[in-house]
Structure formats: C-alpha cells, structure tokens
Design brief:
The chain is an alpha/beta fold. Helix 1 packs across helix 9, helix 2 packs across helix 3 and helix 2 crosses helix 9. The longest helix has 20 residues. The radius of gyration is 18 Å and the shape is globular.
C-alpha cells in the first residue's frame, strides 16, 4: 500500500479531511465482539462520496503460531448507492493509517527546529510503521528501541540504521532523554516511569483500545497536556485516560484538545504532551478512499 500512498501523503489525507470540517466526534463507535480466539471488531464509516467498513480480528495467540495478531479486511463502497468498489487488506490498512494519525499529532506537538531524540517501545509492524511515519514529518537524531525480545529489538534498530537513523537497544529509563516517546505495544500495564519524561517532550500511545489496558502511567497523564482523536472515543476506550480517571487523578476536562484542534493551529504548552490514539473508523475510510483513487490513477 505504501507504493500507492506514502506515509507523508497519508498524513496529509487525514489533515485535509479535518481541515475540511469533518467532525470525528460524530463518527460511529467501534463494535467489539468477544470470540474464542480473541475479538472481532466492526468499524463502519461514511462521508463524502464513500462509505466503508473494516472487519478486524484481534487474536492474541497468533504470534506464538507465527501468525499476525491483527487480521481483517476493508470493504470500500460507493457512498451514493453502497455498491462495493474495492476490498483491501485490513491489517495492512491499519499499519498505514495508525502511524499516519500519530505522525499528524507529532507534526503539531513537537518542535521542528532540531532533530528529535526518539524512544520507541515495541518491535511489531506498528513500530516499523511509526518509525517511517515519524521520519516523514520530523528529522530524528537517534532512536532507542525498547522491547521484550532482544532479537526483534536488534532487528528494528538495524532497520532504523538503514534509514540513516543511529539506533540502539535501550531500557524504559531512556525516556528521560527523549524528545519523543512512541508506544506501540500490547502492554496492559505502564511501560515506563512517567515522572522521567521531560517538560516539552511528547508521548504517543497507540497500543490499546481497551478501557482497562494502558501503556502509560497516571503520573505522566496527570502532568501532561492531553490530546485525543475524539473525546467521545477516548472516554469509551482509552485506558491510558480512563484508569487515571477511575483513580481520581484526573477528570474528563483534563483532555486539552483533539487532533482537529491541533490541525486548526492549537499551540501546546511547555508541559509534557500526550497523544492517545485508539483508532477510529473515519481514518480507515479516508485512507482506503485515497488508496482507491491512487490505484485508479496509477
């Protein structure tokens, strides 16, 4: 898919939609259905001249079998008559759109006057995609990869070096020296000590859409300026925010703004910035439609 739509172009697709006035708060919610192997996700959306739906499977046991954790398909439809137009690989679509959402936030939350020191948690497809997407919007001085599997950590660090980014394996404490921390894991508990994150640094977390799972701790969220894709979605699914709320550390008004606010020019403060993404159906539709148009023009 990246041959049809580069990471930078994907970021622009999302930004253009938000600038055109699309309201993510009105987007349909995700439906999650428990099944023996994990869960099935149904994500419909419609706007403009297209409609579509992603059916994704999340199978936690798959990696041990050498299979992808995320599976699925995306059906793109004509918005006027709901005639099927294209069937896309749902996992590949997710691997393109999720990093683009993060990169759009990174473009607005991080300084552009110097290369960034990056700490990247995770070694799966999303970690690779986020590395590429961050490089599409910012220069990276060096990257530190943190993960459970030393072989996978070395592989991702080696890939970063092929992109001319000095990279090495690291530990959670490396967040103390980071300008940008990106979390792309299946963790259900915090990955690092949030008090180590410096003022002005940005943390992005994309690994979970479950209310009880989180990659960041209460200490970080309570001191950070928090941004989300949409308030309604975050308050349904973002454990990184819902757990601190349940603890009484923050309230709903702790959310400083949304991705649309950032695109509209919202200027962050000097506090740590935290962007929490749960993934939304409108993003899938926007990218799927752009891929369809690009394929027809190729």
């Amino acid at each position: 898919m990246s041959r049809l739509l580069t990471p930078a172009a994907t970021v622009d697709v999302l930004a253009d939609l938000l600038r055109a006035g699309f309201d993510p708060e009105a987007a349909p919610p995700r439906t999650a259905v428990p099944v023996p192997a994990g869960e099935l996700l149904l994500m419909p959306a419609a706007f403009g001249t297209y409609a579509g739906v992603k059916i994704a499977g999340v199978a936690p046991g798959n990696p041990a079998l050498g299979l992808p954790r995320i599976t699925g398909s995306y059906l793109l439809l004509d918005g006027a008559n709901l005639r099927p137009l294209a069937l896309l690989d749902g996992a590949a679509l997710t691997e393109l759109r999720t990093p683009a959402v993060s990169a759009l936030a990174v473009r607005r939350l991080t300084p552009d006057d110097r290369p960034l020191r990056l700490v990247l948690f995770g070694t799966g497809p999303q970690a690779y995609g986020h590395l590429e997407a961050v490089l599409a919007v910012r220069e990276v001085a060096d990257a530190v990869v943190v993960g459970r599997n030393p072989v996978a950590v070395r592989a991702l660090a080696g890939y970063a070096r092929t992109l001319d980014v000095p990279a090495r394996a690291g530990t959670p404490d490396d967040v103390a020296g980071a300008d940008l921390v990106v979390c792309c894991t299946t963790a259900r508990e915090p990955l690092f000590d949030g008090t180590l994150v410096t003022p002005g640094a940005t943390v992005v977390a994309v690994g979970s859409h479950e209310p009880a799972a989180r990659e960041t701790d209460t200490a970080l969220v309570a001191r950070a300026e928090v941004y989300v894709e949409a308030r309604a979605a975050a308050l349904r699914e973002a454990g990184d925010l819902l757990v601190p709320m349940a603890e009484g550390a923050i309230g709903e008004d702790h959310i400083a703004g949304t991705l649309a606010d950032l695109v509209d020019g919202r200027v962050p403060t000097g506090r740590p910035r935290f962007f929490k993404s749960v993934g939304m159906a409108w993003q899938d539709l926007a990218v799927a439609a752009a891929l369809y148009r690009a394929a027809r023009e190729a």
